[in-house]
Amino acid sequence: MIKLDLLQTFAQVVRSGSFSAAARHMGVPRSTVSLHIQTVETALQVRLFKRSTRKLVLTEDGRQLHAMAQGPLESLAHALRVLQGGQGTLRGPIRLTLPADFPAEPIAQAITSFQRHHPGVRFQILPTSERLDLVGENIDIALRMSDASSPDAVERSVLEIDWLICANVDWLARNGTPESFDTACDVIAPGPALRMFLERHVLSGKFPEPSIEVDSLLMARSLVAQGFGCALLPSGTVQAMIDAGQVQRMLPAMALRTTRLKLAFPTRADMIPRVRAFADHLTHVLRHGPEIPLHGSDV
Prior knowledge:
Largest sheet: 6 strands, mixed
Number of strands: 13
Shape: rod-shaped
Order of helices and strands: HHHEEHEHEEEEHEHEHEHEEHE
Number of domains: 3
CATH topology of the largest domain: D-Maltodextrin-Binding Protein, domain 2
Oligomer: single chain
CATH superfamily of the largest domain: Periplasmic binding protein-like II
Number of helices: 10
Helix content: 40-55%
CATH class of the largest domain: Alpha Beta
């Protein structure tokens, strides 16, 4: 099989009109150009050029090869220029997955501000409650809430998230403060997968029997705000309502562990420049951006 660089040399000789001019353009010795052409001719068992001391002319075989190779070589060169871009230019797709109930504001802010500086980068956002196979689903970055290290990914810690049990002040006035979370009524609980995670990593025990099950922590927050009942929520999602006196923290002495928000990548080799640059930007926004609704300490 003839190597691509040999065909590129052939095409450059045709464009330049001589071996010497092609060598100068490519920045290689003239002997290298001659060797490349000779290798192609030997492999194909044809003559590509008729040469004299003063003239270089394509043979019929040479014209046929150039006609067939020129288009594909130009297409390949264009594709390489598009992928590489100019110096410092980032372009291409980024597939990002995140929990289905993750607040949209910080993600939208990070994508918008990043794309202003890198308009060639395109995004595909996949909100899901499932833990996707990063390789099988061709994921570039996964935003995950986790405590243990993942064996199938390279991870970067972003934040530690504080959790608290809270309720609307009107609900507390009607029902009183329970002695423990186990004895609380009107408990708002997330779906089974997240509930199991919270039992293992935040509560260190069983979740109370729920009065209602929701598939989103944001829905749980809305139910708390309306006075339906009490819920275990990230502190940042309800801090504004606590500061306003609408919601109150319950059982402050109860030991609740923090969890980690992480960015996960399939492998280190997959952290190509555009992915690494956006991951750095997203980390900054999640840690320091305005109105980030998952407050915690930097890791």
